[in-house]
């Protein structure tokens, strides 16, 4: 079932050490880069004008975004993690 807020994170296909956040909203898949920054931190490249928030790891980033709701600089809230079938 495709629900708004369904998301998964995968390795970036174009940037080494980066990830891609895929987020479903209104039947469309929106993709955001999760990029490495200095001091081994990572951040989501969100909408323009949204301040960068840096995190130590993916688990912390996801937890923070799950708790933040729609006030996150993304098109919608992260709500439903998608399990990837190998």
TrEMBL record:
GO biological processes: adaptive immune response; innate immune response; regulation of immune response; regulation of signal transduction
SH2 domain mapped to chain residues: 1-82
Keyword annotations of the record: Adaptive immunity, Immunity, Innate immunity, SH2 domain
This protein's record includes keyword Phosphoprotein: no
PROSITE patterns linked: SH2
InterPro entries per UniProt: SH2, SH2_dom_sf
A Pfam entry, by short name: SH2
Statement: the UniProt record of this protein carries the keyword Hydrolase: no
Protein known as: SH2 domain-containing protein
Organism for this UniProt entry: Paralvinella palmiformis
């Amino acid at each position: 079932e495709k629900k708004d807020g369904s998301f998964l994170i995968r390795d970036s296909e174009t940037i080494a050490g980066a990830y891609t956040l895929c987020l479903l909203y209104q039947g469309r898949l929106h993709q955001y880069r999760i990029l490495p920054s200095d001091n081994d931190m990572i951040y989501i490249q969100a909408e323009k004008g949204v301040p960068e928030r840096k995190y130590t790891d993916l688990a912390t980033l996801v937890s923070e975004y799950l708790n933040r709701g729609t006030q996150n600089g993304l098109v919608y809230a992260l709500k439903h993690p998608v399990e990837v079938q190998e």
